[in-house]
Amino acid sequence: MKKVLVLGAGAQGSAAAKRLDVDPGVSEIICADYDLSAVEELVLDLKKAKAVKVDATDVDSIVKVAEGCDLILNALALTFNHNVLDATLKVKANYQDYNGTDQIADLWDACELSKKYPEPEGLKEETLNWWKSYMYLYKVYGPKFEEIGKLALFGTGSAPGLICAATRETMRYLDSCDTIYNIVWEGVSPKRFQPFWWSPITAMTDMCDPAVAWEDGKFINTSPFGRPIKRQYDYMGEEIIFREHCHDEPVQYGFNSKEYFKGCKNAYFKYAGDGMDFACPLYEAGLLNHEEEEFRGNKIVSFDFIMSHVPPAPKFKEEIKAIIDEGLKLDSGCMVVEAYGKKDGKDVLVEMHVAAPGLIESFQLSGITAEMYLTGQSGYLFSKMFINDVFKGRSGLISTDMLTFEECDKFFEYAAELNITTETKVKEL
Fold it and tell me: What pLDDT score was predicted for residue 240?
């Protein structure tokens, strides 16, 4: 029986706590957030949980609530990752994070190890800082977790997370890999204006940041919304245009190309949906600028002005029900991995399709949106692997694309129990 600390009472942390509460392998859940009222409300319907206040800006505050926990599940904002990692090391627990890496480039710059690893050339500052942050995680925190015999697992939502496990799984069918595409379509479209199903500010910021790809064996920047590709899988009603999007996966696959991805030379993340369709023309028109400008005698920041007109992501049961009752234009989507390479000397394409509940089914199952369901349930699946000692014997720090095939088997076995299934197609080219 495991004791788990869930940090954060938002959509992800709440979904995880609810699933952990019914897991027979969990004895106690500590739900912690700076907003005590939020965690107190969360634990009202939970049997194994108690609410505590924590100040994530203070490592000692985290240590105090984490003492005796077997697993620390971090569902806080990226800015707190460094503190939570340090606290986890102090209490000698396992660590799980929904997010990818924090922006801790300054720590890498100050680290002696940084002198041994040349920086990639030609990257914009944001992406270079991303690379430095991953280096610090893998090269500094990794050995620290090895020393205490514990495992830190990063990127455990739906993307990164579920899609990374699916990408790793495709390597079973290849002798060598040339190119990987991660392809995601948010195909839930209500009749009302609701372009985003998670934080609009986070979504729009990611969309406008320089995208990153792994190309010809090196990291490169690509333009936001650029390099469009078209796909129409058999369950789609129409052809969809997917565009570049700033995401962790190509960075992870690039770092791990030799050991985990059969020498993969190229990796891309492509995205589509109402949010992309809304943001793309605004970006092209220069209306998502973060710089202050003068307009008719007034000082404005166009990004902030646009965001003031965008509705927040629905998270309460009543507002989700209202959207469904108004009717949906579409309740679909896709999460697909395309891995191109060779098998037995032949050129092949391995497609792995992930199927999960849409908005209506997610609401019927759990009273939440499809985005909340997929991210929250995916996070819980990785937690369940810790609880059931699937990672027994592993230590250090890994991202979810670094699972063994045996760990992938267990992950997708658990996923199927929650109506998240996969279909793999191997096609000769």
Answer: 96
CA distance 389 to 158: 21
CATH 3.40.50.720 domain range(s) in the chain:
2-154
pLDDT at residue 102, as a whole number? 65
Report pLDDT for 100: 67
What type of residue sits at position 41? E
CB 219 within 8 A of CB 127: yes
49 strand-pairing partners: 29
The answer to whether 405 touches 166, Cβ cutoff 8 Å, is no
Q: Which residue has the tokens 């079973």?
A: 172
Please tell me the distance from the alpha carbon of residue 257 to that of residue 178, in angstroms, as a whole number: 10
Torsion angle (degrees, nearest 10) of CA 37, 40, 44, 46? 140
What is the model's pLDDT at position 147? 97
Residues of the chain predicted below pLDDT 50? none
How far is CA 138 from each of CA 56, 89, 134, 141, 191, rounded to the nearest angstrom? 22, 15, 6, 6, 45
**Tally of residues, the chain:** 429
Choices 3.30.930.10, 3.90.1150.10, 3.40.50.720, 3.30.160.160: CATH for 2-154: 3.40.50.720
- CA dist 12 and 377 (Å) reads 9
Residues 6+ apart with CB under 8 A from 13: 6, 7, 31, 33, 42, 73, 75, 76
- The listed CATH number (3.40.718.10, 3.30.360.10, 3.40.710.10, 3.30.70.100) that belongs to domain 162-367+405-428: 3.30.360.10
Q: Where are the domain boundaries for CATH 3.30.360.10 in the chain?
A: 162-367+405-428
* Confidence (pLDDT) at 334: 95
